[in-house]
From TrEMBL:
Organism: Grantiella picta
The gene coding this protein: Plscr5
Domain of life: Eukaryota
Protein purpose: May mediate accelerated ATP-independent bidirectional transbilayer migration of phospholipids upon binding calcium ions that results in a loss of phospholipid asymmetry in the plasma membrane.
Full protein name: Phospholipid scramblase
Keywords: Calcium, Lipoprotein, Palmitate
Pfam families registered for this protein in UniProt: Scramblase
Length: 212
């Protein structure tokens, strides 16, 4: 189904317990097309210990299923570092599609100023770059992570964190993202871009006041 899409909307569902008590719960997402129609549903799997103690750095497995309940994509994130002081053990996500078959990887690149990632294919060959802004707080506005060619000169798309309003951002960690890529991009790389979106969400927008 991803073959026909050039825009993917990812909407994190509001968790009532998280909104009322501030307790971190497993994330659930709806993945939609540009018309707002749900095409996939995603659920994060980990335990309470990871969510409470490791929060933005937590390991996870996100299972993505179609509307018939068939798992079509699996995103796996191990526990790794997230600091410019530790350039040797940075974030990496493996994306499988179908589950058990590697589609590609998202690898964080060390940079003292900008969030940078490399999208790799199943053979760990570099395909695309993702470069974010210096500040990701996004004061009442969207935050764009640009998808670029390997030379980092040509922009071919973006991953955007949409500002969703004061109430959502203060009381919950829910987020709305948009992925824009060329429609003819390799469908496996489109699946990897969804994994990149989940990683960006956890790394930069997990705190409840982000987006203000």
């Amino acid at each position: 189904f991803l073959k026909q899409l050039d825009q993917i909307i990812i909407h994190q569902q509001v968790e009532l317990l998280e909104a009322i008590l501030g307790t971190e719960t497993s994330s659930k997402y709806e993945i939609k097309n540009h018309l707002g129609q749900r095409v996939y549903f995603a659920v994060e799997e980990n335990d309470c210990f990871d969510r409470k103690l490791c929060s933005p750095l937590r390991s996870f497995t996100i299972r993505i299923a179609d509307n018939a309940g068939r798992e079509v994509i699996r995103v796996i994130r191990p526990l790794r570092c997230n600091s410019c002081c530790f350039p040797c053990f940075l974030q990496e996500v493996e994306v499988q599609s179908p589950p058990g078959t590697i589609a590609g990887y998202v690898v964080q690149n060390w940079d003292p100023f900008l969030p940078k990632f490399t999208i790799q294919n199943e053979s760990k060959e570099d395909v695309l770059k993702i470069i974010g802004p210096c500040a990701t707080c996004g004061c009442f506005e969207d935050v764009d992570f640009e998808v670029k060619a390997l030379n980092e000169m040509t922009t071919i798309g973006k991953i955007s964190k949409y500002w969703s309003g004061f109430v959502n951002n203060v009381f919950t960690n829910t987020a709305n993202f948009g992925i824009q890529v060329p429609v003819d991009l390799d469908v496996r790389i489109k699946a990897v871009m969804i994994g990149a979106c989940f990683l960006i969400d956890l790394m930069f927008f997990e705190n409840s006041l982000d987006g203000l």
